[in-house]
Description:
By secondary structure, the chain is an alpha+beta fold. Helices cover about 35% and strands about 20% of the residues. The model is unreliable at about 1-25, about 45-50, about 275-285, about 300-315 and about 420-428 (pLDDT under 50).
Amino acid sequence: xxxxALPVRSTGEPSxxxxxxxxxxxxxxxxxxxxxxxPEGLAPARDSLFEVFDSPARDSLxxxxDSLPRRDQRQAAVAYVEGLLRGGTGxxxxxxxxxxxxxSQALQHFVGQSRWATEPVLRQVAELHAAHREVTxxxxxxxxxxxxxxxxxxxxxxxxxxxxxxxxxxxATTVSLAGPAGASPVAWKLRTPRAWDSDEQRRRRAGLPDxxxxxxxxxEIVELVDRLSLEWGLPPTPVVADLRDGTDAEExxxxxxxxxxxxxxxxxPQQRLxxxxxxxSQIRQSEVTTVAALRIAQATSDLxxxxxxxxxxxxxxxxxxxxxxxxxTPGHSRRHLAVDWPLSRTEPAQLWLTNLPGMAxxxxxxxxxxxxxxxxxxxxxxxxxxxxxxxxxxxxxxxxHHHVTLASVAHLHRQLGTExxxxxxxxx
Length: 428
C-alpha cells in the first residue's frame, strides 16, 4: 500500500473534500480558506492594485475590447473594469464614475442597455490567459447571485448545492481555464428557472430572449464546452465538473465522449450508469448505481489502493483512494470509478466517473485535475471578493451578461498586471 501525495501545503489547510461542503460565509473568508491554492506570483488579496493601471497594462486592456465597435464603448469598458479593480467595497456605477472620465449615466447605459456582444470579449480573455499560462483543465462550476426581489432576470427561489439550501437567487454555470499557474473564468451561462418559461411579463421586463428556456444542467455544460472547443477553437483539455446535485452524469459523459473529450465528474452515489454484467449464459448491459457498480468491480477485480491522511482542521481522518475499471459498454470509452473511502466509514465519501488517460497506472491524473478544480474555486471567490462579481444592481439579461464579462476581464487583468509588477517588467 503506497502513500498518495495530495497537493496541499500543511496540516490544517483545506482539502479536496472542502469543495463538497458549504463555503465559508463571505467572499473574504472564502478567499482566506483557499489561500493555499492562490497561484504563485499573484498578489495576495490584501495587496494594493495600483500597479495594474500603468500604461502598458492599460494598452493590453484596450486590446481585449477590440470587438466593441465604438470608441466611447471601449472607453466605458476600460473605466468600468478599472472601477471594479479599485480598492474598497464600493463597486457601484456612481463610485466608478467618480474616479473616471465617464459619467455614471454613460456607464449605466453601457452596461445595462448598450448593444455589444460578450462572447468576442470573453474569447479574448480566454486567448490571453492561454497565451500566458498553461491550461490543463476546463473546470465547470455553478455560481449563485443572491437577490431580495423577484424582477431581476432569472431570479427565483431555487436550491443551491454549494450552500446546501434553497435561496432567492440567480444561478449561473461558468467554465474556467485552469492550470498550475491559476485559473480564469471565460464562459458564462445564466440558467433559466422553469417558472420563467411561462412568465411573459417578467421575461419582457428583463429582456430575456425567447430562445432562453429552462434546460437540464448537462445540456448547459455541453453548450459551454462546445463554445470553447468548436466556436473558439481552444485546444481541448479534460472537463472537470461536480455533478452531485443530481445532474445526469451519463448524459454528460456520453456527450463529452462523442466529442472526443476526457473528463472527471464527481457523481452522486445513486447516479445510474450502464455497465456490463456477467450472467450465467451471457454478458448483458444493465443500469446500476455508482455504488452498485463499485461493489461489482470490487467482487471481480483486485483494486489497487493508496492511503493518505487528509488534512482537516479537526479531527484528522485517514482515507483510502482507489480506482476501478468499469466494463466497457458499446459506444463508450474506457471508464473508471475513482473512490475516496475513509477508513472509518462503511460507504465511500466521494466518487468520480472518469475516462482520463493514465488512470490504469495510478491516481496522478485524478489528483492533478482536482488541484485545477481548487484553483478555479479560488479564482471564482477572488472574482467575487475583489472584482465585484455580485455587485451588479441592474435587472436585465443583457446587463447581467455584460457585467460578468467585465468582471472576468478585471480578474484576468488583475492577475497579469500584478505578475508584471512583481517581475519588474512594468519598469521596462
